[in-house]
Amino acid sequence: MSVDRAVFVFAGLVVLAGIVLSLTVHPWWIALSAFAGLNMIQAAFTGFCPAAMVFKALGLKPGVAFR
Question: What is the pTM of this model?
Answer without folding.
Answer: 0.86
